[in-house]
Write a structure and sequence with these properties.
It is a single chain. This protein has helices at 2-18, 40-52, 70-80, 92-105, 115-124, 131-147, 150-160, 170-178, 187-195, 210-225; strands at 59-60, 167-168. By secondary structure, the protein is mainly α. It has a single domain (2-22, 44-225), classed as Biosynthetic peptidoglycan transglycosylase-like (Penicillin binding protein transpeptidase fold), CATH 1.10.3810. Strands 1-2 form a two-stranded parallel sheet. The longest helix is centred in the N-terminal third of the chain and has 17 residues, at 2-18. It is globular and about 45 Å long.
């Protein structure tokens, strides 16, 4: 435990040391009123396709949070960031646990990114893993949490996250996988979509993968337990 505390303390010191040098990160306040046309990750994927000679294009449709199924919102938070409404952008307990697991495995195998951290990476940063990027991510996360409401952060995330090769945002994902709008997704469909978020290019919501099936079922059980799904009907 002492070692973990020292590691976290060292990381925070590095952030403070470099904060002046890396302070010049994008101003996130414009996101209060404006939706991003294209994220850094979308641009990264386009460069990948160009290098590979692939003619794929970004597929996305923006939809406000009020037109996204409550099932989707809850399923994604259960899957990716169960303390979203409580934390300030960083889940310190999850960070400590991830560090312990990485030390045990002797490699970087476990992350602890919140929805806000994932949004910061998607909007502004490259997928590379290095100390400089982590510092920028921390600053951006801090700014996002202080500039935007939690609902706006969740709305942005659900609209920019990748749900398949070139499929960005919940509206396109709902249409692509289930032929319906995001507002009409059932609880089980929402659980399936949430289950693939860690690796949406490896898995699909309707995959026969035991991993997807088990994770989706766990998410659905939690939704039932919390009363998100109050009654069951065919297809719910």
């Amino acid at each position: 435990m002492k070692l973990i505390t020292q590691i976290i303390g060292l990381f925070l010191l590095l952030v403070l040391f470099d904060i002046g040098r890396y302070w010049f990160v994008p101003d996130v306040k414009e996101l209060q009123e404006n939706n991003p046309e294209k994220t850094a990750f979308m641009q990264y994927r386009e460069r990948q396709w160009e290098i590979e000679g692939d003619e794929k294009t970004i597929s996305k449709d923006w939809v406000p949070l009020t037109r996204i199924s409550r099932y989707v919102q809850d399923a994604v938070l259960i899957s990716e960031d169960d303390k979203f409404w409580e934390h300030d952008g960083f889940d310190y307990g999850a960070i400590e646990l991830a560090i312990e697991k990485n030390i045990e495995k002797r490699r970087f195998a476990f992350g602890a990114s919140t929805i806000t951290q994932q949004l910061a990476k998607n909007l502004y940063l490259s997928p590379s893993k290095n100390p400089v990027r982590k510092i920028k991510e921390a600053i951006l996360t801090w700014r996002l949490e202080r500039s935007l409401s939690k609902k706006r952060i969740l709305e942005l995330y659900l609209n920019v996250v990748e749900w398949g090769d070139g499929i960005f945002g919940i509206e396109k994902a709902a249409l692509y996988y289930y032929g319906k709008r995001a507002r009409s997704l059932t609880a089980r469909q929402a659980a399936r979509l949430a289950a693939v978020l860690p690796n949406p290019r490896k898995y699909t919501p309707e995959s026969a993968s035991p991993y997807v099936r088990r994770k989706a079922e766990r998410i659905y059980r939690i939704m039932r337990k919390r009363g998100v799904v109050s009654f069951v009907k065919p297809g719910s």
